[in-house]
Write a structure and sequence with these properties.
By secondary structure, the protein is α/β, with parallel strands linked by helices. The protein folds into 2 domains: 8-122, Rossmann fold (3-Layer(aba) Sandwich), CATH 3.40.50.300; 128-369, no CATH class. It is built from 15 helices and 13 strands. The strands form 2 sheets. It has an 8-stranded mixed β-sheet with strand order 7-6-8-9-10-11-13-12, with helices on both faces. Helix 11 (206-213) crosses helix 12. The protein is globular and about 65 Å long.
């Protein structure tokens, strides 16, 4: 079963003007998406295929092809120089789509040799609106159970998901990390990966992790940063405001594959976080606004799960509850003390009502109202 991905039309438009880079987690569907743009096999080049590798290194392509896809080319040490050379030589004749793992994003942040020559997109896992235009609860439940990565979602099988997860984590740790960094103790990073799902949704304690792993706090922080660079996890910073005595240095961690999280409440929170991050990245990548996803927490431990910010303007805040419950007193507290215009308490029940600027509603209705991707 194939699903038209939400970035396809935007990539088509941008390919008429510049190169397009598509990054994202391993097995999120980047290669499948790239093949939607080709009409003949000669347009597709994969660094992992030896005969393709020779062609890529020679920088010689047929302009009559109109478009070429360079897949996994980030494994070539000089891929940025390659991409720059192709663009400078063929930009009037060839459209170029470059896809790969997080390494594209990693190298994008260093150097400026490609500035002005490409647009960059981050491809996310499936979300409820992408799969279900009618915002079906059945789809929500399936996403919660199997996550949003295409293979396990479409297979709809617990045993398949368990095997897929094991293989994916092994490839992330022993292939992606090995390619990206000169790390010696991959077995301890694998242990860190085993520990992180239980940390989702709570304030991340580096001290607790370093005690479990028997390494320094700086080492743990560096390893988490590396895992973020290969799209295994991501962290959110707190929203700081003096009027609410907000914490400033702590952060919260979430996984790109929320189905790894065993706790039902933390898993739902992670899925909502991923939907909101996808929303932020989409607006940033297609419209150029600076988007931020943060959380609110003060020194008295009052907390709201998420706040979405656009160009430093507060848009809305979101609190997650797995069941139908009364309005969180923390929402009322922060509603009275911040300039956030809208607060949402999303849940997996059916209640839908508004109290002041606080809207309590099912997750599906929230996605529809806020046009979450």
């Amino acid at each position: 079963m194939s699903t038209t991905r939400y970035l396809e039309k935007h990539i088509r438009n941008d390919l008429k003007k510049k190169m397009v880079f598509v990054g994202g987690p391993r097995q999120v569907g980047k290669t499948t998406l790239s093949k939607e743009f080709i009409t003949q096999k000669e347009q597709y080049y994969n660094w992992d295929i030896l005969k393709h590798r020779d062609i890529i290194k020679k920088h010689i392509f047929n302009p009559s092809l109109k478009l070429i896809v360079l897949d996994e080319v980030h494994k070539y040490s000089r891929w940025r120089t390659l991409a720059k050379g192709i663009y400078d030589e063929y930009s009037n004749a060839l459209s170029v789509l470059v896809t790969g793992s997080a390494r594209l994003d990693h190298f994008r942040k260093g150097g400026d040799s490609l500035v002005g020559r490409y647009h960059y997109y981050r491809l996310h896992p499936f979300s409820l609106p992408e799969l279900s235009p009618r915002y079906s609860r059945t789809t929500t439940e399936r996403l919660l159970r199997f996550g949003g990565f295409p293979e396990p979602y479409h297979e709809n099988s617990d045993s398949f998901y368990r095997r897929w997860k094991k293989e994916r984590i092994s490839r992330v740790v022993y292939q992606d990390l090995r390619d990206l960094n000169t790390l010696k103790d991959l077995s301890k990073i694998e242990l860190l990966v085993d520990l992180l799902p239980s940390k989702v949704g709570s304030i991340l304690s580096i001290k607790s992790l370093q005690e479990d792993l028997e390494v320094s706090p700086n080492t743990v922080s560096q390893w988490i940063k590396i895992l973020e660079s290969v799209y295994y996890c991501y962290r959110l910073l707190p929203f700081g405001a003096s009027k609410i005595r907000a914490i400033k240095k702590s952060n919260k961690l979430y996984l790109w594959d929320w189905a790894e999280v065993e706790s039902a409440g933390a898993r739902f929170e992670n899925m909502v976080a991923s939907h909101l991050l996808k929303y932020c990245h989409f607006i940033e990548d297609t419209e150029g606004y600076k988007m931020e996803l943060r959380f609110i927490r003060d020194v008295d431990l009052r907390e709201v799960d998420f706040v979405v910010i656009q160009n430093k303007k507060l848009l809305f805040a979101v609190e997650c509850k797995t069941g139908e419950k009364n309005i969180s007193p923390h929402l009322k507290y922060f509603s009275a003390r911040t300039s956030i215009p809208e607060f949402f308490q999303v849940h997996l029940g059916s209640q839908n009502y508004i109290h002041g600027n606080i809207h309590v509603l099912p997750f599906e209705d929230f996605c529809k109202i806020k046009k979450i991707l």
